[in-house]
Amino acid sequence: MNGIDTAVHLREYDPDGLVVFLGLRPECAGDCFTAYPFNYIIKSRLNYTKGESVFLAAYSVFKQRQQPFIVCRNRSTFQCIRLSDISHFETLGRLVVVHFKDQTFEFYSKLNTVEQSVKDKGFIRVHRSFIVNLSYIAAADKESLYLLGHESAIPIGQVYLDQVRRETYPFFSINQNNQTLTL
């Protein structure tokens, strides 16, 4: 696998990543654009100033694009997940299950620890076993939330009901019989 194939393969995992090619011949620069590089530098023209300016420009773009993420670790794997991709967290015994992009990842932690790490980042604790991403809430009633892309309801615990109402108030209004939260 050459550098271009490697970069195309990396794009499958991180479409927003920045790739800088360092090549020998200017005529090869056009070949690399299937991988959407940030820059192509010709080795013979590379000097400290040029390298530094490309690095600083790439870093500036990276910082602007950077989205908050959470790092989850189980016995053998680290998983970096963008917070915007996560619909919710749930506990199953000592395991926390994070639901994201039609996938799940299980890791050992306490939901309280997860809650502290996503606090004030668009997530809300709605039950002793669930934390949800506010942007994924599609509908709600007095006892449950319904998330985009998920068929099963997320229960709202009595302890969390007032907080859920306060946090979702900008998105929902309570109908007259106080039974359903609607858009």
Automatic annotation (TrEMBL):
SMART domains: LytTR (SM00850). Residues 70-148 form the HTH LytTR-type domain. Pfam families: LytTR. Keywords: Activator, Cytoplasm, DNA-binding, Two-component regulatory system. It comes from Anaerostipes rhamnosivorans. This is Response regulator receiver:LytTr DNA-binding region. GO terms for molecular function: DNA binding; phosphorelay response regulator activity. Gene3D superfamilies: LytTr DNA-binding domain. InterPro entries: LytR-like, LytTR_DNA-bd_dom.
